[in-house]
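Request: How about a record?
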Amino acid sequence: MRRALPPLNALRAFEAAARLGSFKAAADELGVTHGAVSQQVRGLEGWLRASLFERHNRRVVLTPAARAYLAEVGPALDRIAAATAQYGHEAGAVLRVNAPASFSLRWLVPRLARFRARHPAIRVRLETSNQPLEALADPYDVVIRGGPDTFYGTTVRVFLSERRLPVCSPGLLDRAPLRSPADLRRHTLLHSASLPRLWDDWLSEAGVAGLEPEAALTLDHFYLTLQAALDGVGLAMGPTALIADDLARGRLVAPFEGPRLPARSYCTYVREGRALAGPIAAFLTWIEEEGAA
C-alpha cells in the first residue's frame, strides 16, 4: 500500500522550527537560509492544507493541531535517524558529494576510480546540481562549487584553478587552419547559454573585438559545448581544468598561445560541525592531490 508521506526536508524544517520556536534558529541548525525553512514550512502547510504556525515578529507559535502533529513527527524522525546511523555503521561510510554536472562529467567522475582504489570502504554518493550553496536543502558532506566564496558556518578550500582559452578538434584545423585570431571569421563559434559573454571577452582581449564568425551555435549545457568541439562542429572556450585530459591525448588542440581568460577556482565547501576527519578528510586530501596534479 502506497504511503502518503510529505517531503522529508519539509518535515525536518517543521520539526526544527517547532522545537526551537524560530525559523532563524531552525535555519542555523539545519545549515540553510531562513527563507529555505520558511519555504519548506509553507510547502508542508500546503500539503497538509492546514496552518502550523502563528507568526509573531521574530518567533513562531505552534497551532494546537501542529503540537499534536509534532508529538508524532519528532519521535518518528528520531527513529529514522537511529535506524540510518545503525545501517550506515553496518554498511560502511557513505560520503555525500554535490558538484556541478559539467565538472562531474569532465573531471570528477573519470578520477573517482582512483579514490575508490585508495579508500574501498568509503562509498561515494554523487549528485549534480548548479544551485547556489545556500539553496541546497539536503545535508551533503562535501559541496563543490566555484569560488572561493565565504558562507557563514562553512569551511572552504581551493583545490583546482583554471583559465579559459579557445579549443577545437585537430580535424577542424586541418580543414581550415587558424594562423591568427582574425581567422576565426571563417569558423563556427560555440557558446554556452550559461556563459554567453566568454567569446566576446576573449575576442576583445585578442584584439579582434566585434569579429563576426561564419556561424555561431549556442548549447544549453557547457559539456555539450565541449562535446561539439570534440566532434569538430566549431571552436569552444575551454576551461583548462576540464579539457586537460583531452589536450594531453590530442583530442582537442589550442590553436592560440593566448590570451587566457581568468576563471573562478573550484572549491570544496564543508559545513562547520561536520568532522573534518574520516571519509570527509580522506576525500578532501585526495581531491586536493588530484587538483595539484
In short: The chain has ten helices and twelve strands. The chain has three domains: 8-88, 92-162+265-292, 163-262. The first helix runs from residue 8 to 20.
